Amino acid sequence: MNLCITGGAGFIGSYFLEQALKEIEEASGKIIVYDALTYAGETDRLNHLDSDRFIFIRGDINDRMLFRETLEKYEISHIVHFAAETHVDRSIQGDSIFLKTNVEGTWSVVTTAAEYWTANGGYTGKKFLHISTDEVYGVTTAPADENTALSPSNPYAASKAAADQYVLMRRRFDGFPAVVARSSNNFGFRQHPEKLIPKIAHCLEGNHPIPIYGDGKQKRCWLYAKDYAEILWALLTRNVSESVYNVRGSQNLENGQLAELMRNAYAKSKGISLEKVSPILFVEDRKGHDRFYNIDHSRLKSILPDFEGVKIETFLRNYFNKQ
Ligand SMILES: NC(=O)c1ccc[n+]([C@@H]2O[C@H](COP(=O)([O-])OP(=O)(O)OC[C@H]3O[C@@H](n4cnc5c(N)ncnc54)[C@H](O)[C@@H]3O)[C@@H](O)[C@H]2O)c1
Q1: Per annotation, catalytic residue among 135, 146, 164, 227
Q2: CA 92 to the chain's CA centroid
Q3: Secondary structure of residue 242 in the 3-state scheme
Q4: What's the pTM value of the predicted model, to 2 decimals?
């Protein structure tokens, strides 16, 4: 396997690179990280990994010539496509970059890979794992399974839904070897400071009030990025039959509950009383703020029945000591 990870300098991509380094024997395949290093990309996230074991290429997914050269030079057989604009608030402020990166960028990598693979032995032994999100379903009355219609409610989610549809079209169109993973919210270390958990941590450390949208009752299902990397490895390497897999974490939390858990963990780690810790400040809700993405992951469970993820509550207990 010669593997290319787009967006490998991002939060989840870096966990996946760590997983790939564990799984691929040194002599048996190349690992390429292809990342434009936008404001969200950080090579520091890769500092703890053995840099002799992977090749970093700074490149834009919309640069088809460089992407094609990369596929050819390293004879890439497997692609895991994480690269994306990922922050919902930013997509509400301006969504053109979301369409450019998430939709056009996905078109670019899929089309380039399809051309390269078709010209080099066809699709047998090749795989394209597309990283999507549970947000594509929007809010549903019953748990959304992989056949539920997509109904995104914010520009980020719409751009991811469009990308998904393109990837799946290509699979139906000519058998392009794609699998789509739609996961719930990830937690872990090294996440960009604009995301909810690091943002709450930053407020706690600076002793500022913690802004939480609306009534704080929006609920998210939390998945450890390290667990997700393991699941993605299984989807990449096993001969799975379906085109889409929902992946959910093991614990749902309302945003207000999450902030309370973090306040408690912070107080404990500093040995101070809870009254001395930053309070929660409820602020005006954001537009299109979905209450809950309730996804059904029975399909994934049928191939990984014993998988038990780390609970976010357990992770947060040591978050401030380990950062
Ligand atoms: N973080 C989550 O909770 C979550 C949940 C579900 C799905 N996802 C999906 O997982 C994927 C990774 O999310 P993340 O949180 O790690 O994102 P991130 O924002 O931390 O990282 C994105 C990475 O993509 C790179 N990138 C952006 N535009 C690029 C371009 N044009 N060309 C090449 N590289 C580019 C950035 O430099 C960065 O390294 C995304 O596709 C996202 O939609 C994330």
Answers
A1: 135
A2: 19
A3: coil
A4: 0.97
